[in-house]
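# step 3/5: fold
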Amino acid sequence: MPKPTMTLKQLAGILNVSVSTISKALNDSPEISDATRARVKEVAHFYNYQPNRIAQNLKSGKTNIIALIIPSLQNFFFNDVLNGIEEALRETQYHLMINLTNESSAKEAQLVETLSHGLVDGLIIAMAEETQKQQAFDHFSPSKPIVFFDRIEENLNDFVNIKTNDAIAVENAVEYLMDKGRSTFALISTIHNLNVGKERKAGFVKAHNTHEKAIAHDLILESTKENVSAQTLALLKENKVDGIIALDEESSIAAVQACKTLGIERNRDIDVIGYASQKLAENMTPQLSTIDQHGDRIGKESVQILLDILQLKDYDLTHIKSELVIR
């Protein structure tokens, strides 16, 4: 049978001392004698006394909790970031609270509002798609330090942005295909409303402009997660291309599936470079070449910067470079 739990007031009544004495004894205050401290701890243990951490946090103004707000855990990139964050926090006194927005700006605003009122010490955020699409940033309050990653807004000057070289990474991917002798490229994306999608598209455009190569705008497919598979299949049926740059995991899978359905042999008839987890890319046949965002490094960097801010230290903001992985 479990032992009943006790409050400070109840413990004080059992021991016939003040609540203040109980609190000081449990916190090893030198004001309390060794004998009293030992007796208080013995009785507290017997009655399974658990301190009220929320009350303690409200009193101290510190929670030792960091909140992560992301759109989803189904995206491989956010899983990599989460792994990096958890690894970085492992040797600290901080704990992680994970929150999902499901791409809703309203949900994001609610989470930021709730968490900023004493529940956490700081936040790490990748914005919801709806937030960026609507350009609705008023709910990001400077009352708590915030580190943004991946989905960022340059004009939010009160916060830190972890930037990556999205445009350059895609530009390098197109350059690689051109060097292989590929000439006609399709661009497929379901993230065109996001800053990362726009920057990756800019890299695609720049590579064409650098080589004074015209862009076939009917080969740029900006779709939704629900429609990208059917629309990619239609695009490849109607157009002959020998290279595809897919800007996200859904687009990458759609491109691979469309090639398989149409009997287009990847790495011979066409090259596809996309974004996908290492496990997914390596288990495709043939394997998929990808742009590696190094999500685990981004997670670690986000934690380090946030902890530096919380500890009032200077921090170094480094750019983590996405890299082309040819398989």
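# step 4/5: annotate
DSSP finds 13 helices and eleven strands in the chain.
# step 5/5: archive (pending)
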